[in-house]
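To whoever is on call:

I kicked off a structure prediction for a single chain this morning and the downstream step that reads the tokens threw a length-mismatch warning. I double-checked the sequence; it's 290 residues and nothing unusual in it as far as I can see. Pasting both halves so you can look.
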Amino acid sequence: MREIPKNPYKANIKSGKMNFILKFMIIAIISITFVSNHILFSHDQQINENIVNFNSEAALNKSQQIVYEYFKDYSGSVSRYVGKVWLESISKQQNISDITVFEDYLNELQRKNLKNIRIDCTIYAEECLRAGFKKDTFNLLKKYHNEIWQGKGFAGWSVAYLLTNEFGWKAYAFINPGAINYNHYTTHFINGEYPVWMQPNTQIIGYFILGEDNEKIESLLSEQEFGWGFSEDGVHTWITNFIDLKECHWDGPPAEKYNQNNSFPVLFETTRFVEFEDYDVHLVVFPPGN
């Protein structure tokens, strides 16, 4: 059993006076509980009833729509969905006959009267998130993001920060016991936050040790239809659907004929979360009521 700190709750949580002018805000108090010897932290969250609604089914339907179309065209044709890095770099370094793979792909799209859709891990996750929110709510998310990061694109960590701070989502951290920066991360976890280098930390409800806590991890995930997640400092963004992690690879080719030796991953992949080993540290945030 791991030793639990005597005072796990952060004493410096800002208390400030309640602003009663915001009449559409309610207070959601998440009680302190325990998960596999790891603290679940209690935070007072102000949640606007008008914006918390998130349609997980719509978000996952969007994922299914994109992935289905990709694989339908992947074998025997070409898909308009293509990994951003594959298109902008890799395809220009390979040849088919006397033209580059890049040129061959554009010719194939022209014959189908299609334009390519360049995609990477964050763009994929963002499209799913957009589908789950009402238009006004998603625009509000973008507004908040622009106010802090001044026009920069979405990142896994920036969106997770806003979803927990402004939209009442709940965040959980996960770490492999062999992670290089294990002590750095767990020190922050014990204080109820997930650290990102040179960026604001995200408050977490609790954390789990991968491998040791897998049963409890899957118990948590099995109750969450949709989650927004990222690994380490945001090097990779993905979504979850119950116990599965769904991701997009930016070096994924748009057709099987460009991947004869399986040198590259297919564009989309689903992995059981507890079996995902590409990175050692993760944060997942879940919508309220999920």
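Update from on-call: the warning came from a stale cache, not from the record. Cleared it. Sanity check on the structure: The chain has a mean pLDDT of 86.
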